[in-house]
Write a structure and sequence with these properties.
Layout: E1 5-9, E2 12-17, E3 21-26, E4 31-35, E5 49-53, E6 56-60, E7 64-67, E8 85-88, E9 96-102, E10 105-110, E11 113-119, E12 126-132, E13 143-146, E14 150-155, E15 158-162, E16 168-169, H1 172-182
């Protein structure tokens, strides 16, 4: 099992799931289309998560993050002209889990931490930096992304939230309870 993720870019919704691929829903034509690596070689074989950042579709693959040309989610061919591109998430390492947006870009959550990809304002489109190796999701299902709160997520040390900055404890009493009473008594080895 793997969580679904989604994002809206202009008149199209994009949905992804590790076991399915990328689905585009066109609001105007009321049509669903399934896309995968066989249809478009720049779509990752395995898509762990999807989001929209800077007017671009972002896809999280096995080893790389891929983003589309602006306002065209299916143009994933890397190009300086369109700004579509790809970046290894080896800066943070670990099994890919999820993507989450923040005002200036997106975050990549892996089993080893969080990678921050911030709009750069130049041809590189995104500047990628390691945000944290101390805050590790316990599972890809342990993340919610909201406009008001930013990204709220569960680690072995409790609940945290971030809006693209170093994560801080979220709801300290609940976080402490989860850390000291629930997580320590839970077998985390078979969560996926």
């Amino acid at each position: 099992h793997w969580p679904w993720s989604h994002g809206k870019l202009n008149n199209k919704w994009y949905f992804s799931n590790l076991n399915v691929g990328l689905i585009e829903y066109d609001i105007v034509t009321n049509k669903f289309t399934l896309y995968n690596n066989a249809v478009n070689p720049f779509i990752p074989v395995n898509i762990y998560s999807t989001c929209i950042a800077g007017g671009r579709l972002v896809l999280l693959g096995d080893t790389h993050i891929h983003w589309s040309a602006q306002d065209n989610g299916l143009d994933l061919t890397p190009s300086l002209a369109t700004g579509a591109g790809t970046q290894s998430h080896s800066l943070i390492g670990g099994k890919p889990y999820a993507l989450a947006t923040f005002v200036r870009g997106f975050l990549t959550f892996t089993a080893e931490g969080i990678l921050k990809s911030e709009l750069s304002g130049n041809v590189a489109i995104f500047r990628h930096t390691g945000l944290s190796t101390e805050h590790k999701l316990i599972t890809p299902f342990a993340l919610i992304n909201t406009e008001k709160l930013g990204s709220v997520f569960l680690t072995t040390n409790g609940l945290y939230n971030t809006r693209g900055e170093i994560p801080t404890v979220w709801e300290p009493l609940l976080s402490a309870y989860l850390h000291t009473s629930v997580i320590v008594n839970t077998d985390l080895t078979n969560l996926l």
